[in-house]
Amino acid sequence: MTKQTTTPKTTTHILGYPRVGSQRELKFAQEKYWRGEITQQALKEVGSLLRHRHWGDQVGAGLDYVSVGDFAWYDHVLGTSMLLGHIPQRHNHGFPDLDTLFRVARGKAPTGCACAASDMTKWFNTNYHYIVPEFTKDDTFTVSWTQLFEEVAEAQKAGHDVKPVLLGPVSYLWLGKEKEADFDRLTLLPRLLTAYQQILNKLAALGVEWVQIDEPVLALELPHAWADSFKLAYQVLSGSTKLLLTTYFDNITHHLDKIVELKVDGLHIDLSASPEQLNGVVAALPEHWVLSAGVINGRNVWRADLAQLLETLIPVKAQLGERLWLASSCSLLHSPIDLDLETELTAEVRQWLAFAKQKCREVSLLAQALDGSGVAVQECQHYSAPIQARATSALVNNPEVRQRTQAITPALAERKAPYAERARQQRAALNLPLLPTTTIGSFPQTDEIRLQRRDFKAGRLSEAEYNTALKGHIADAIERQQKLDLDVLVHGEAERNDMVEYFAELLEGFAVTRFGWVQSYGSRCVKPAVIVSDIYRAKPMTVEWITYAQSLTDKLVKGMLTGPVTILGWTFPREDLSREAIANQIALALRDEVADLQAAGIQVIQIDEPAIREGLPLKASQWQAYLDWAVNAFKISAASAEPETQIHTHMCYSEFNDIIKSVAALDADVITIETSRSDMELLKAFEAFDYPNEIGPGVYDIHSPNIPEVAQITQLVEKAEALIPAERLWINPDCGLKTRNWEETEAALHNMVAAAKTLREQW
Ligand code: GLN
Ligand code: ZN
Q: Going by C-beta distance under 8 Å and a sequence separation of 6 or more, which residues neighbour residue 188?
């Protein structure tokens, strides 16, 4: 073969970089600004510093473009609303500025009036939340907020080749919601396009060649009108700059025939979420389009197998030449920032991982190898060796765990008796009153608890001292609950920093990072653990705490576990095993914990599953398959309970209509849910389905510091009773109380118990 000195260069970029900073600098600056401790100018300087650092990371890795417009003060969908001058009327007073943005996001800012914040919801199937655009018939769009253009100029001034990122018009409309009846937000598209045209013209005037225009909704199964709307949109938008239409989180094959008709100049596809779409897209790619191959996973922490990707991409490169671009699969917003900071991971685990900064390097190295650099090819092989070796590592693959999951039978997921029989036995064993009262698990995480945990982690408090302190908090929580006269008590979760990380630290198979923060919403970040190997339970995890709590009272104490689907959903999963298989491993570990709690005399056990709904695949046609294995994993964890042991579950959201069948299939004896804000409306889904088991519809909103009145609670329970027979109703708050203080908590629970007692007398 002749030496390929003339291989056309592969262009490299990422779809976006995390914005919070490796030390969460943005978070801390924002919060200081909100508290009035720093000026707006000081906050803006932190933003600028971070942008420069992140562009530097991209350039330093050897990427051809830096992404601009991926930075956001709170959220990039809200940033788009600002750019479009599309501010909810109640917040719209003259020219929008940074405080306008914070008011829409949080209801208040250092300046201006306080008004309700806009809703926040999950960004597709990630754990990132965006601010939901609000649409009314008369909405107008005027390019207002100059942040994007300033950032472009800022990056250009620093000498970078700039590729601005814009959320596309169809996705922007889709992600919002109508605030008026009888109106379809899609009708706003023509008006919206005029504003987008202006934005693109401005970018062109700044000398921008390519704009990345994100239309992630193309991964969904869209209604026809929406799918068809792209045609008009991109007809109007084409002309001023080149457009790279970006899709991610799933394949777009189902819309491909429409996509290739659009007036854009290139297409980005997510080959990490859906590698199988590659050939079909390459075959259909219009002749003058570039293909941005999103091969480096932006949503997980694993080092890429560059050697294998190189093999896959060589024929594509041969076919597309310089029309092939390489990229991250999606924005790196969803991945932690810098693996180099993780000095406490074992060397073996560390060499399996890559965070945002390392992923930029992966994109660049792969492109160099693809372009024929022998050194880069070797480097790819060397780089991939650990991740290839991992496949057979004894550390990762545990024969006992594998054997146990392979031996799972359908019967393993079934309780020993049907609900009606269990309910009878539980009534006899538990001796609970009508409308039993309980809470969801956590009690206030006071400053004292946090400080003690910090001191323990830093070695300033011995394990024995820390445990004594925790027992003190448990005893305190039990005493307060007894005084309140609640029926089923909890230990209060003082020992848990986070309902998933706590179990990740105790179960084998997880690695926990120190700085692996990922933005969840606004200034809030989460630090998901990483599932690195087969999961098992080396020893009981919660039994000591729960039995201690039970030893202090004659009332029932409820054991408290996080369910398999939620543990999986809120961690970075391994990718060499299906999500179903991982969930089953976790389920078996929890199943043993349930058995141990029961053997230790605990008669009520709650297995929280708040993440079941958000795990739904993007394409509705795949929901059922997911729900089937998710429900099964939950059932496996619960089914070691004897009929007289009562299994509770908890889900803190309020949309059950479309998943009610699967929620019922969980077959939990009691489910507690969030309902207070919906005024018990959502119980209708349970009524309509004839939901057979017991339900605790939340009777007050724990997110608010307001103390619910007794009458308010009795009214809600009366509404609930119109839908669900009283014998199957529980009385509890919407969710855990860890973010509230004790004063609020006790006042609210006092009224809740009073309401239950009043109703018991009446009924
Ligand atoms: N048991 C947990 C708590 O009370 C449940 C939290 C949740 O549902 N997110 O905090
Ligand atoms: Zn909850």
A: 135, 139, 173
Helix axes 543-551, 463-484, angle to 10 degrees: 50
Q: CA-to-CA distance for 154 and 69, rounded, in angstroms?
A: 11
Question: pLDDT band for position 1 (50/70/90)?
Answer: very low
- Asked if 75 and 130 touch (Cβ cutoff 8 Å), the reply is yes
Separation of alpha carbons 330 and 440, rounded Å = 36
Nearest to 327 by CA among 370, 301, 358, 295: 295
- Alpha-helical (H) ranges within 17-96 are 25-34, 40-61, 76-83
Measured from the CA of 439, which atom of ligand 1 is nearest?
A: 4
How far is Cα 255 from Cα 242, in angstroms, rounded to an integer?
A: 21
CA-to-CA separations, 400 to 353, 394, 397, 563, in angstroms, rounded: 25, 12, 9, 22
ipTM reported for the complex surpasses 0.95 = yes
Average pLDDT rounded to a whole number, residues 4-14: 85
Nearest to 73 by CA among 41, 98, 108: 98
Q: Report the distance separating Cα 139 and Cα 184, nearest Å.
A: 12
CA-angle at 310, arms to 259 and 124, nearest 5°:
40
pLDDT, tens only, 504-551? 999 999 999 999 999 999 999 999 999 999 999 999 999 999 999 999
- In this structure, are residues 731 and 696 in contact, taking their beta carbons and an 8 Å threshold? yes
> Residue 267 — φ and ψ, nearest 5°?
-135, 135
What residue has token string 């990072």?
Answer: 513
Residue whose CA lies nearest to ligand 1 atom number 4: 736
Q: How far is the CA of 132 from the centre of ligand 1 (A)?
A: 25
Q: What is the pLDDT of residues 95-147, one digit of tens each?
A: 889 999 999 999 999 998 888 889 999 999 999 999 999 999 999 999 989 99
Pocket probe for ligand 1: among 481, 489, 493, the residue whose CB has the most ligand atoms within 8 Å is 493
The residue with tokens 């009108």 is 225
Rounded distance from Cα 612 to ligand 2 centre (Å): 12
- Residue ranges of E strands in 75-226: 120-122, 129-131, 134-135, 162-167, 177-178, 210-214
Q: Which of 493, 503, 510 is nearest to 541 (CA)?
A: 503
736 closest CA partner among 443, 436, 438, 437: 443
Answer whether 686's CB lies under 8 Å from 695's CB: yes
